[in-house]
Amino acid sequence: MEQVSGEVGAFQVAVRKKARYVNENLCTGCGACAEKCPTMVVDVFNAGLGNRKAIYKYFPQGIPSVFTIDAAACRQLGQGKKCGVCAKVCQAKAVDYDQKDTLIQLEVGAVVIATGYEVFDPSVIPEYGYDRIPNVVTALEFERLLSASGPTAGHLDRPSELALVKEMEEAEKEHKKLQRQVSQLEEKHGKPSSEIVAAFQSGTLPDDADLRNWALLAQDLASLEARLDSMNRRKATASVARKLAFIQCVGSRDFRFNPFCSSYCCMHSVKEAMIAHEHDNGVHSSIFCMDLRAVGRGFEEYKLRGGKQANIRYIRGRVAEITQDEALNPVVWYESTQNRQVVHETFDLVILATACVPSPGAAELARQFQVELDRNGFFKTDPLAPLNTSRPGVFVCGCAQGPMDIPESVAQASSAAARAAEIVAPARQAVG
Amino acid sequence: MSDQIRIGVFVCDCGSNIAGYVDVKALAEYAKTLPNVVYVKENLYTCSESGINEIKAAIREQSLNRVVVASCTPRTHEPLFRGTCEEAGLNPYLFEMVNIRDQCSWVHMQERESGTNKAKDLIRMGVAKAALLEPQESIKSEMDPNALVMGGGISGMTAALALANRGYQVYLVEKQAQLGGLLLQLDTLGPSGVDAAAFAASQAELVRNHPRIRLMTSTQVKDISGYIGHFKVTTASDGKEEQFGVGVVIVATGAQILKPHGLFGYDGERVITQLELEARFKRGTFSAGNVVMIQCAGARIEERKYCSRICCMVALKNAIQIKETHPGTGVRVLYRDIQAYGTENEEMYRRARELGVIFINYDVNVPPKVHGEKVTVTHQLLGRELDLPADLVVLSTPLIAGEDNEAISKLLRVSLDENKFFLEGHVKLKPLDFATDGVYLCGNAHYPATVREAISQALGAASRASIPLAKGVMTVEPIVSTLVDEDACRGCGLCVALCPYGALEIVRTEKGRKVRVIPVACKGCGVCAATCYQHALSINSYTDRQIAEQISACLESSG
Ligand SMILES: Cc1cc2nc3c(=O)[nH]c(=O)nc-3n(C[C@H](O)[C@H](O)[C@H](O)COP(=O)(O)OP(=O)(O)OC[C@H]3O[C@@H](n4cnc5c(N)ncnc54)[C@H](O)[C@@H]3O)c2cc1C
Ligand SMILES: Cc1cc2nc3c(=O)[nH]c(=O)nc-3n(C[C@H](O)[C@H](O)[C@H](O)COP(=O)(O)OP(=O)(O)OC[C@H]3O[C@@H](n4cnc5c(N)ncnc54)[C@H](O)[C@@H]3O)c2cc1C
Ligand code: SF4
Ligand code: SF4
Ligand code: SF4
Ligand code: SF4
């Protein structure tokens, strides 16, 4: 949204439709372009755990099922290089590098704000080590790991292992290259590398650039082999994540960050622990919580079932710190409210149930619409008129007005529509 | 239309989704050999504009009178291709879709040959059925442009006002003499601090003065028959019966408070419920030196497993109220989990602690004991029993399902959950609709809710209900049950009893008792046709003959 003027019953809103560089009416969503696109980009949707191409669909079930070019990453658009691969392979002739943003003027009677929320960035909590410890992930990242369409196809591989695999792939590529170069030199000179390296190390190598280069390459190869060896050993002992810890209220109910409760995170942790157990019956989960807030229909029953059938332990207490052992296992330190002692326990993977915070554009949107935010930065509503913002004709639903789960968001969406309809109904009847 | 069957078959590559795994060229060649097939075309994307135009052109130029598309899935694409046929002047029900992607190429990605053979079988079956398709006309039915709202609590009043403000006539039926429901008995409302009864009264005033709301207090709904668009409602008030018709129904009949007889020494005097505490606030008769509140009294236990969602908030509100009006009174809350979810409730929790309310966690296996002027609780942190002074004990009891829920669920053929609250159509995506068309729910009838939540659900239910009302006519797919052999029907009513949607009834005709189908209510599930031992009922576009033909086509080999 760029600009808004007018008042209830007659708002003028200017919105910018960003260029997607693909003609929506022509694209059939076949994906041929992405298959051939040479540019790899870190996949934001998969929480950075995988890669996608520069021409992409945000996620597989995205609506509309139309591809988009990530202009900044695209060789043709963003980097000023020659590419044009996607335009060539697209049989529908949908790719359009010249597409521009369009400004659309809307005349509307009412406005519904449904801009949702953002997940809290836990790296500002130093004691949880999110940015230091690879096997500490957010719940959103964990959802991607659990997803059949996610980066691991639903297997509970640990991020440390995923990183290792990536590192090994690169090292192996490098290894092949070095090996080729070294064996070419060996052939050319008819000598084994070991002789040259020995001579180099004892300072008896003739002063010849070619030989020196050979010695250095051979040394690199040896050290790379040693590294690969150690990585292989690590990989052999690597196992999937089976012992999980869920840390609740990360950035919620915490005066340093957000005083409020994010409503849905207790239940999504139970859900994630259940799904992990469904996927692999060897999974054991511990949920660290102050209160387990299971307040919807069937939630308490679901929670109890998790305890009985899905190896979930509920541990009352706030986690003080997360550290890491040599095997890259996270260690959770907490005060047990059962016996009042600081205890610690080692896990395969720690999942942080991060807070639901206002979406980054909320403040700007509130300024443009001249509506009030509450003290937490969500759109302010009245408990007895729950969809109304401080401005007539502007309504708000879902997590934009505060944390809530999907059913509540869906119910509110209908209510906001009812409110908006009361305003536009007379006009619509007049039009017929 | 000539009598000769002329079938056109369109085989879709779906980019590489189908063509990548099965031999589409071979499928097209094969389709040409099938009986009645006069035209075959392979498309890169049958659903693209060019594909659609090819179908239309072929209908005209080849005088096709049946169209078969072998492609992705009818779930997403059948309406499109039906529409294409209609635009080209062919009855949309002379179209048959064959699923060779979701149920074939995607499942047999590594088995090109057997996948191709299976696709051939599927196409042969589709063609066999297509030859027997009959044109159908879609069913239209006018909506009664009005609504019944059951229950005049805050939810029912809000829903009635929203619909009436949109221009629809509303019958609001409340069984008590007064509007307002539970709010009439409460003191102030958290977190707004507004007087509950006064707020209810202000809404009741709007209801009473609304020209489009017919308010019926002290009234019970005795009977409801019919279906979306045409519900026939019978009400009774003071022994007087009345009948009227409505297009939609909203259930807002609320819940009731559990009376905690036998729990924690409940006596209504020194051990009372939160509701009774609020009554004392209202009358100004509250006084106590030390209050102990016990959460989950009768909830989250073996016989009643669920959490009632609002009672922690109510306890926080009342604890704050005591501290603000009687700062010298000690307030201790014994809890299992404090359900202060969201921004406002957590804020109340913080405020209560600031005011000196003491929260003590207890374990369900060692519940607190009330004796004399004391409450004994096993403190989880200290690991020992504490005796707390208590001249007043307040029990936070759960809301339980309304007493009429079972009767209403039978009247409207809607479901209840295991705790007898009304159950919505889909827990995530249809929170305000019942599975039965034209019936909606909100507020405590659905599950315990705060006033904020009840109002927003009520507005939402009104919004859902207004969708069919605004359309004015219901258009229903004609794939419904039909009485194809009236003479065979013996009027036994077996099918009537089994139809999950109330779409069948027994009527008296000249020939005796016979079944009658109510097409707008029928979902075409086929239960009745499968049940009728007389084969009197049949589903349009899925007749016994069509299916038998498909089966025999399946059993032929593709050679
Ligand atoms: C890890 C995790 C797991 C969860 N699991 C569950 C679960 O199992 N069950 C459940 O019920 N709930 C779950 N939730 C909660 C659920 O995600 C929310 O209830 C729901 O997404 C809220 O929907 P919304 O539409 O209000 O907000 P959002 O989903 O945040 O949608 C807002 C949309 O608005 C767009 N937007 C933002 N700003 C602008 C702008 N300025 N202009 C235009 N568009 C804008 C955004 O791009 C986004 O598409 C989970 C949450 C998390 C974090
Ligand atoms: C002790 C207590 C304190 C509370 N405090 C607060 C608070 O501070 N803040 C807050 O937000 N919420 C509070 N609540 C919750 C609040 O009461 C509910 O949100 C609200 O009552 C929900 O309204 P409702 O219309 O859905 O149901 P109800 O209020 O239960 O109304 C249902 C109505 O339907 C009628 N009815 C029932 N059966 C039939 C039938 N068969 N035919 C016709 N009519 C029928 C009933 O007579 C009643 O009038 C409190 C609840 C309790 C128990
Ligand atoms: S842009 Fe072209 S190649 Fe890419 S998905 Fe769309 S139609 Fe296919
Ligand atoms: S829902 Fe649970 S995890 Fe989330 S903030 Fe509230 S209490 Fe903490
Ligand atoms: S809301 Fe609180 S008191 Fe009520 S059942 Fe749930 S946990 Fe118990
Ligand atoms: S097809 Fe199903 S819905 Fe229709 S009348 Fe028969 S049993 Fe009822």
Total of DSSP H or I helical runs spanning 4+ residues of chain B: 15
CATH superfamily of the largest domain in chain B: FAD/NAD(P)-binding domain
Q: Please state the overall shape of chain A, judged from the principal axes of the Cα atoms.
A: globular
Classify the fold: give the CATH topology of the largest domain in chain B: FAD/NAD(P)-binding domain
The CATH architecture of the largest domain in chain B is 3-Layer(bba) Sandwich
Helicity range of chain A: 25-40%
Mean of residue pLDDT values of chain A: 92
Outline of the structure:
Helices cover 34% and strands 21% of the residues of chain A.
General description of the model:
- The complex is a heterodimer of chains A (432) and B (559).
- Chain A is an alpha/beta fold.
- Chain A has three domains: 19-100, Alpha-Beta Plaits; 119-158 and 240-357, FAD/NAD(P)-binding domain (3-Layer(bba) Sandwich); 161-237.
- Helix content of chain A is 34%, strand content 21%.
- The two termini of chain A are 29 Å apart.
- Chain B folds into four domains: 7-136, Rossmann fold; 146-256 and 400-473, 3-Layer(bba) Sandwich (FAD/NAD(P)-binding domain), CATH 3.50.50.60; 261-394, FAD/NAD(P)-binding domain, CATH 3.50.50; 481-540, Alpha-Beta Plaits (2-Layer Sandwich), CATH 3.30.70.
- Helix content of chain B is 31%, strand content 25%.
- Chain B has 15 helices and 28 strands.
- The mean pLDDT of chain B is 94.
- Chains A and B meet through helix 8 and helix 10 of A and helix 10 and helix 12 of B.
- One iron/sulfur cluster is lined by residues 22, 27-33, 67, 89-90, 92, 94-95 of chain A.
